[in-house]
Each structure stands twice: as C-alpha cells, then as structure tokens.
Amino acid sequence: MAKNINSVSITVLLFVLLVASTEILKSEAQTFCFECGPVTFVGTNADCFNCCKTKYGSPPVVSGIVEGSEKHCHCYC
C-alpha cells in the first residue's frame, strides 16, 4: 500500500513539474490598462482598438472594446 501511494505521489509531482515547465495552463486573460477617446465613445470596437494602438502602442495594447453604460473605450494589455 505504501509503495502505491509513493508511486502516485511521484507521478503527480512529475505531472505538476511538466505542466509548470511547459506553461500548458498559462492564462491568456487580458487586463484593463488604459482608456481612450471621449467619455461617450461613438465608434465601434475596431475604432476603439485603433484609438488604443495610436495612443499607447501595440504592444502593450492587444485589444480595445467599447464597454459600459456610458460607452467607454477600454484598452486591454
């Protein structure tokens, strides 16, 4: 019984090391970093992204989305 628990523990440890070293579970989440344009942004998401790229550069900006009830252009890094 002890040998089975030992081999399972070693297998789990090796799996965790493999996942950590290859970054298999690395998140692709984007984080809000800037705001662009007027408070009521009347353009599309593409216009928002162009505003973000022009003002802050790409990278760090990877997307721009018009969000919220007041239609703000949010830049994500």
Automatic annotation (TrEMBL):
Top-level taxon in the UniProt lineage: Eukaryota
UniProt KW keywords: Signal
Protein name listed in UniProt: Uncharacterized protein
Signal peptide: 1-29
Originating organism: Brassica cretica (Mustard)
